[in-house]
Amino acid sequence: MTEPIGEINPGFSTPGAPARPWSDMDAVLTGAQIFWLSTVRADGRPHVTPLPAVWTAGSLHFCTGPLEQKAKNLEANPNVVLTTGTDKQDEGLDVVVEGQAVRVTDGDRLRALAQLWKERLNWDYKVSGEAFTQLDEQHDAYVFGVAPAKVLAFGKGEPYSQTRFRFPTS
Fold first, then answer.
1. Are 18 and 8 in contact (CB under 8 A)?
2. In a 10 Å sphere around its CB, with 0-12 CB exposed, 13-18 middle and 19+ buried, how is residue 75 labelled?
3. DSSP 3-state of 110
4. Which UniProt keywords apply (predicted)?
5. Which end of the chain is more exposed for a tag (fewer CB within 10 A), N or C?
6. What are 74-115's pLDDT values in tens digits?
């Protein structure tokens, strides 16, 4: 992944605040355990749910059961927003990732992701076909990757800042 360049939005930032560096986004995305996934139902109503996700290789990865609402939503519209950060008003960094969710079905990639889920989140998955399976083998989970199309970063505390990162589409 080519490192994007951040652009400060002076209208939503403390005067003179610098754009946050991409290394800050990478640290937040790598360290976060819970994200809020926003999808759109087939009838246009929004759907938001918290879930664990793993940032690696320039994409955020999450999983969902094939019968869950988010999986149904993704069938009709793959555009998503994943949000993480802190509940503090005057400290921390909130990060919003926009992009399209693409199903991951490659066995080698799934095994690498299952290992990361174990290392970072202590969730035990094994790979069964083109999905994760819980160790009890009762629940399959489709895995999706979201390569960012746009990232917004909200620095909270002096200086307050809003930085936008854009990614090439080709």
1. yes
2. exposed
3. helix
4. Oxidoreductase
5. C
6. 999 999 999 999 999 999 999 999 999 999 999 999 999 999
Q: Take residue 170 and report the two structure tokens written for it.
A: 């080709």
Please give the DSSP secondary-structure letter assigned to residue 121.
H
Residues 6+ apart with CB under 8 A from 136: none
Question: What is the token pair recorded at 159?
Answer: 């200086």
| Mean of all residue pLDDT scores within the chain | 93
Tell which residue, 169, 163, 131, 164, has the closest CA to residue 147.
Answer: 169
What 3-state DSSP class applies to 106? coil
Q: How is residue 12 written in tokens?
A: 């939503």
19-103+133-166 CATH: 2.30.110.10
Q: Is 21 exposed, middle or buried (0-12, 13-18, 19+ CB in 10 A)?
A: middle
